[in-house]
UniProtKB/TrEMBL annotation:
Residues 81-84 are annotated as: Involved in Mg(2+) ion dislocation from EF-Tu. GO terms for cellular component: cytoplasm. The gene is tsf. HAMAP family: EF_Ts (MF_00050). It comes from the Bacteria. This is Elongation factor Ts. Residues 49-197 form the Translation elongation factor EFTs/EF1B dimerisation domain. InterPro entries: EF-Ts_dimer_sf, Transl_elong_EFTs/EF1B, Transl_elong_EFTs/EF1B_dimer, Transl_elong_Ts_CS, UBA-like_sf.
């Protein structure tokens, strides 16, 4: 199947991956978009896995102010070198992350950051729901796992769908940047301030 520039452009819009990577993915999947997306995700994940042991000590701190000064966000995005930190792609994603945090208000960066007692409380709620709905006990673990994944999508930044392109998660976006730059990239932390939120 002939891969057109329109197809490459559409896949790039959906995934945020580079043009050459999109073309390669479409060629390897014979124009099948779902397979091409899987191909890009696997490529991004394998690149991310390879780089994850490298120290990410450089990077940038990006900020975003929303609603005329009512919400403010700071995000620290780390990479391995000053060279990558100064690229337009890296700076743009850092700013996009700050804007995303302002809009989506996550509580944690990643699932590993959720405290054990909070997780246990969530699991207890899901168990009670399964019992109340008279679900067979043998499928409770599967139900709890599914609901936990939904919970992570709500409260963990990396599991959320990117507000400017809901076809990709923040995690996929970072993995695509890792694949593109060849460096380990980590969202270190964020802080979100909302005017008056602590005032009783």
């Amino acid at each position: 199947m002939a891969i057109t520039s329109e197809m490459v452009k559409e896949l790039r819009t959906k995934t945020g991956a580079g043009m050459m990577d999109c073309k390669e993915a479409l060629n390897s999947s014979n124009g099948d978009f779902d397979k091409a997306i899987d191909y890009l995700r696997k490529k991004g994940m394998s690149a991310a896995t390879k780089r994850s042991s490298k120290a990410a000590k450089d990077g940038t701190i990006a900020s975003y102010i929303h609603m005329g000064g009512k919400i403010g966000v700071m995000v620290e995005l780390n990479c391995e070198t000053d060279f990558v930190a100064k690229t337009d792609d890296f700076q743009t994603i850092a700013r996009d992350l700050a804007m995303h945090v302002a809009a989506s208000n996550p509580t944690y960066v990643r699932p590993d950051d959720v405290p054990a007692d909070v997780l246990e409380r969530e699991k207890e709620i899901y168990r009670s729901q399964a019992l109340a709905e008279k679900k067979p006990e043998k499928i409770w673990d599967k139900i709890i796992e599914g609901k936990l994944n939904k919970y992570y999508e709500e409260v963990c930044l990396v599991k959320q769908k990117f507000i400017k392109n809901t076809d990709v998660t923040i995690e996929t976006m970072i993995n695509n940047l890792i694949a593109k730059t060849g460096e380990n990239i980590i969202i270190r932390r964020f802080a979100r301030f909302q005017l008056g939120e602590e005032i009783k």
